[in-house]
Amino acid sequence: MMAPTSAAAVLFLAALMALQLSASASPPAPPIGQPGCNTTCGSVSVPYPFGFGHTHCYWPGLNLTCDTTHGGPPRLLLGDGTIRVTDIWVSGSEPTLRVVREGSLVNSSSTAAGGGGGWSASFGRGFTEHGYLLSFDNELVVFGCNVVATLLADGIGGPNSNNTAGRITGCASQCAKKFNSGGEFFIDTGDVEGVPSGDCSDGSSGCCRYPLTMPAPPTQVQAVQLYSGSDDAVEAAENQLPVNVFVAENGWIGNMSTRADEVGEVPFVLKWSVTRDLPPGPELDDRSRCADHVRRALCKSINSFCWNAIPGPGYTCQCEVGYDGNPYLAGAGGCKDINECDFSSEENGCFGECINTIGSMYCRCPHGTYGNPGVKGGCAKVNPTTGQYIHTRALDDNSCCVGVVISCTFSADDAPLPTVEL
Ligand SMILES: *[C@@H]1O[C@H](CO)[C@@H](O)[C@H](O)[C@H]1NC(C)=O
Ligand SMILES: *[C@@H]1O[C@H](CO)[C@@H](O)[C@H](O)[C@H]1NC(C)=O
Ligand SMILES: *[C@@H]1O[C@H](CO)[C@@H](O)[C@H](O)[C@H]1NC(C)=O
Ligand SMILES: *[C@@H]1O[C@H](CO)[C@@H](O)[C@H](O)[C@H]1NC(C)=O
Ligand SMILES: *[C@@H]1O[C@H](CO)[C@@H](O)[C@H](O)[C@H]1NC(C)=O
């Protein structure tokens, strides 16, 4: 049994820890959505202009569905429910949604090739009809032997415009042929039947990848198996190997730990902008500021900008430099000054005394020292008798010599020892 004194000590310690915990509890986080709206679905934060539930919780057209009917954790779904949203970025210069979709777009294990050895799969319905585009952050990834695949898209303006973009990316995947000991050709089926060994960029070991050439609303993926010129047995073997075509976030295949035909959810990135309930903006434009009445209607935070989306039509908001928050919200949730002094010296580049200012920061050497506060060890004390100040390391500029000081000595071994008369 515990002695009474040690039990008391334990209680005291516990009380102390509880006190420290409550003292270090941070102030309530600023709102990210409209008042009275639920902004969390499972583990995903849902900042305005996105939302679910009551119509005042989202900007028209940017409603999502928080699906709690599946038993597991709630899932944030977009459009027809085939796409799950995992991350929403509303601030910054490239507002995007990170989403996942189950399986491959072309899957030879579930769909037999049509005439001419080809497959065609629609891709995009489910998000393009809600105004989302595939962003530059995606690439086409193809697995198979002697397969060429392309991703087709509508022009900007969507399916109702007559502006057809056509192919926005494509690549060809081959399986290198090898000789066996008997001098016969064979293909290494491990290329497509195992976890990809390389990064698929050379297109010769059972997979290929190619980035998107423009952000666009995709319509379909087409793949065709080419005649390889091999003898019948090899050709037959090649044609039996699985073909899988994906559109995935750049770099996704570097993370792949399963065979291509066993892949589950595949991440990709959508670009969005606000189009509904606002006057139409320019369709194709350089990055330019919105008309004033659009800015007032959409970018409710002071210290925010409004941009015409590229490609248009549509608009996005962004906090001014030095501010962070939700540019679509007025008041506490909106763009607030970033206190740059809260960051580490490495991050904010200030090794002296950091003074936060509205929209920026200021860095100086502490009182009684001189030098360059922008480098580590850059501020040094002045020797009152010699009038010299000694740096612990050499500075790569002479800003140390600003001040009413007679001379300046660098003590770093490999540096010259300049004496500067001011
Ligand atoms: C927000 O919605 C999720 C999913 O519907 C639910 O699990 C959670 O309890 C809700 N939170 C609040 C505060 O209503
Ligand atoms: C928004 O809500 C409407 C009506 O419930 C629905 O048809 C539509 O798919 C939703 N949009 C998105 C992007 O989820
Ligand atoms: C391909 O289809 C098969 C059969 O339906 C399925 O088991 C497999 O998971 C699918 N693979 C991908 C990557 O979609
Ligand atoms: C597309 O073309 C058709 C026929 O030329 C025309 O009637 C229609 O207005 C066009 N649509 C758009 C959005 O330009
Ligand atoms: C790759 O894996 C890392 C670590 O799990 C993750 O942070 C990153 O988002 C993944 N990248 C892609 C493109 O899936």
Automatic annotation (TrEMBL):
Q: What is its main location?
A: membrane
Q: State whether keyword Nucleotide-binding applies.
A: no
A GO MF term = polysaccharide binding
**Record-linked Pfam families:** EGF_CA, GUB_WAK_bind
Would the keyword Cytoplasm turn up in this protein's UniProt record? no
Q: Which GO terms describe its cellular component?
A: membrane
Record's superkingdom?
Eukaryota
**How does the UniProt record describe the way this protein sits in the membrane?**
Single-pass membrane protein
Q: Which InterPro entries match?
A: EGF-like_Ca-bd_dom (IPR001881), NOTCH1_EGF-like (IPR049883), WAK_GUB (IPR025287)
Can you give the residue ranges of the EGF-like calcium-binding domain? 337-380
Q: Where in the cell is it found?
A: Membrane
Question: Signal sequence span per UniProt?
Answer: 1-25
Q: Which of UniProt's keywords are assigned here? A: Disulfide bond, EGF-like domain, Signal
Q: What is this protein called?
A: EGF-like calcium-binding domain-containing protein
UniProt organism field = Panicum virgatum (Blackwell switchgrass)
The upper taxonomy is: Eukaryota, Viridiplantae, Streptophyta, Embryophyta, Tracheophyta
